[in-house]
Amino acid sequence: MSTLLFYAIGFTLGCYALASLMVLVRLLRGPRAQDRVFALDLLYMQAMLVVLVTGIFHQSDRYFEVALLIALFGFVSSAGMAKFILRGEVIE
Which residue ranges traverse the bilayer (predicted)? Predict the structure, then answer.
């Protein structure tokens, strides 16, 4: 691995950590439920991106499968939370 890629991955993970902290503040302080759901959606997306960058760093395909699972579960949970906020129930 080149030194440029090593430093770029380190910078990227640092930026994701900073963004995750800011989203966590929004998740805890969000005045409305919609803000909290959106913050949770961003948080799982950032977790997926961290897993992808870690997979690039370790040069392994297993991380990409984990990122796909995070994306699938995150989409389903976001859809369920949106339906719960909209109608007050998830299963009709």
Answer: 6-25, 37-57, 63-86
Q: What is the pLDDT of residue 71?
A: 92
Which residues lie closer than 8 Å to 48 by C-beta, 6 or more apart? 67, 70, 71, 74
If one counts the domains in the chain, the total is 1
What are the pLDDT digits (tens) for 39-74?
989 999 999 999 999 999 999 989 999 999 999 999
Q: 51 near 70, Cβ under 8 Å?
A: yes
Other beta carbons less than 10 A from residue 37's beta carbon: 19
Q: Which domain holds residue 39?
A: 3-87
**pLDDT tens digits, one per residue of 22-32:** 999 999 998 88
CA 10/CA 90 separation, integer angstroms? 40
φ, ψ of residue 71 in degrees (nearest 5): -65, -40
Residue 40, in any domain of the structure: yes
